[in-house]
Amino acid sequence: MAAWETLDRHYLWHSRWYNLRQDRVRTAAGHEFTYTLVEHPGAVWVVPVTGDGQVVLIWSYRYPVGDYCCEVPAGGLLPGLGPEEAARRELLEEVGGQPAAMHYVGRFYTSNGISSEIAYVYLATGVELGEADREPTEDLELRLVSVDEALRMARSGEISDGPSALALLWCEALLRP
Predict the structure, then answer these.
(1) What is the pLDDT of residues 27-66, one digit of tens each?
(2) Residue 40 carries which DSSP code?
(3) Are 141 and 58 in contact (CB under 8 A)?
(4) Sign of the torsion formed by the C-alpha atoms of 152, 156, 160 and 165
(5) pTM value?
(6) Do 140 and 164 touch, CB atoms closer than 8 A?
């Protein structure tokens, strides 16, 4: 299957987190149209587990949906930082977490119809919690739950952030000895 050809590209908007881009494209079948997408550098989702086996979840206020959502720590990639470094940074920033070990679990596209964002999933084990260093936009509350409870919440929809739920489910085999 042939890829689409980009005929023209311009940016509608830039921010430090992502850009809004509009491309004029031609499909392999010769159809031409305008495609608008979010150009994103990628992000990480970290499933943190303490030394005594508790999963660290956060309830974070999300302005676009006007609600608190249950999530695992997550954040965007920055230039010059690889995904594991970003995972460690987000863990420390959001929950004050220092892991004994980080395990790469996998990657996926978060919204491949409208965005180029790639999500990298890590399991952080032996996490010791300390003082968080949150950004001013981070309005969140920490909660520790058992592995069984975290997985139940991911399956039931109580964790409404899709990437967080998927990250937990992908880690299941590693969370159960």
Answers:
(1) 999 999 999 999 999 999 999 999 999 999 999 999 999 9
(2) -
(3) yes
(4) positive
(5) 0.93
(6) no
CA–CA gap between residue 44 and residue 76 (Å, rounded):
6
Positive or negative, the Cα torsion across 127, 130, 133, 138? positive
Q: Kindly report, residue by residue over 71-118, the tens digit of the pLDDT.
A: 999 999 998 999 999 999 999 999 999 999 999 999 999 999 999 999
Q: How is domain 43-175 classified at the architecture level of CATH? A: Alpha-Beta Complex (3.90)
Domain ranges (residues) in the chain = 5-39, 43-175
| 81 half-sphere exposure, CB direction, 13 A CA radius | 17
pLDDT at 162: 96
Nearest-CA neighbor of 170 among 146, 148, 149, 154?
154
Section 149-158 average pLDDT: 98
State both tokens at 57. Answer: 């979840």
Residues 6+ apart with CB under 8 A from 70: 57, 58, 59, 143, 153, 158, 159, 160, 161, 164
Query: Distance between CA 117 and CA 73 in Å, rounded?
Result: 17
